[in-house]
């Protein structure tokens, strides 16, 4: 199963969700490969910041040939997560063509809702060749108890793309964990951030069945 985490907009949480989804799947005993398709190399930096054993394998592949190489690279893994780059359209296209599911992180802001049009268009173009390609929005950096968190779901409905029920709340633990190359569950195993990520992963598993 290949999941690309993509949005042309920068800073929406592609890397944060990629590493934590990968970690959660690993904790659930799947074999996970994280491909960093972003020339910025944020997932690779995350892995390099870590002391001790890696949780899962991370490789850098910021090339527009990911879709051609992924079958060979992914042998022996249950899940491949592709952390996509912002802005670079040919890389995003390749990451979409490589994927079974494209997850689109969006922040609860009108700017993010507008900016999502670009990636949705790329996905719709890819469906001409890949009919079975799935896609879904995931709301990230939701601020608890605000109407904007609820409204974003409605605003996104114009894109005819499902919005996952599981949201990820704005929490400082995501940055704290990243600084150490850790997943949030390693910092606070029973905490609310780890629970949100696990819920999201369970929902993704259901969604792709
Ligand atoms: N749920 C969250 N709560 C708090 N901070 C978050 C959350 N998600 C992401 N961040 C922070 O927001 C910033 C951007 O996140 P991240 O790097 O994951 O986004 P990105 O989409 O991968 O960015 P880029 O487009 O540059 O690759 C980081 O500083 C990260 O720690
Ligand atoms: Mg990133």
From TrEMBL:
Q: Which InterPro entries did the record assign?
A: CobQ/CobB/MinD/ParA_Nub-bd_dom, DNA_Partitioning_ATPase, McdA, P-loop_NTPase
Q: Which domain of life is it from?
A: Bacteria
Q: List the keywords (alphabetical).
A: Plasmid
List residues of the CobQ/CobB/MinD/ParA nucleotide binding domain.
3-181
Gene3D superfamilies, sorted: P-loop containing nucleotide triphosphate hydrolases
Q: Name one Pfam family in it.
A: CbiA
Q: What is this protein called?
A: Cobyrinic acid a,c-diamide synthase
Question: What is the organism field in this record?
Answer: Candidatus Fukatsuia symbiotica
Source lineage: Bacteria, Pseudomonadati, Pseudomonadota, Gammaproteobacteria, Enterobacterales
């Amino acid at each position: 199963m290949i999941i690309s985490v993509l949005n042309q907009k920068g800073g929406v949480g592609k890397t944060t969700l990629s590493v934590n989804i990968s970690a959660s799947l690993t904790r659930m005993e799947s074999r996970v490969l994280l491909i960093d398709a972003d020339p910025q190399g944020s997932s690779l930096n995350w892995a390099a910041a870590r002391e001790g054993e890696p949780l899962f394998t991370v490789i850098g592949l910021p090339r527009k040939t990911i879709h051609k190489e992924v079958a060979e690279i992914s042998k022996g893994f249950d899940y491949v997560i592709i952390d996509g780059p912002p802005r670079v359209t040919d890389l995003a296209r390749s990451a979409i063509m490589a994927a079974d599911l494209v997850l689109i992180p969006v922040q609860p802001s009108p700017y993010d809702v507008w900016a999502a049009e670009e990636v949705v268009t790329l996905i719709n173009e890819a469906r001409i060749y890949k009919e079975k390609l799935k896609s879904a929005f995931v709301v990230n950096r939701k601020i608890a108890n605000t109407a904007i968190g609820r409204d974003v779901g409605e605003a996104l409905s114009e894109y005819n793309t499902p919005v996952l029920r599981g949201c990820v709340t704005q929490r400082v633990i995501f940055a704290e964990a990243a600084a150490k190359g850790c997943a949030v569950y390693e910092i606070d195993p029973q905490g609310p951030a780890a629970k949100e990520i696990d819920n999201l992963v369970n929902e993704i598993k259901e969604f792709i069945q």
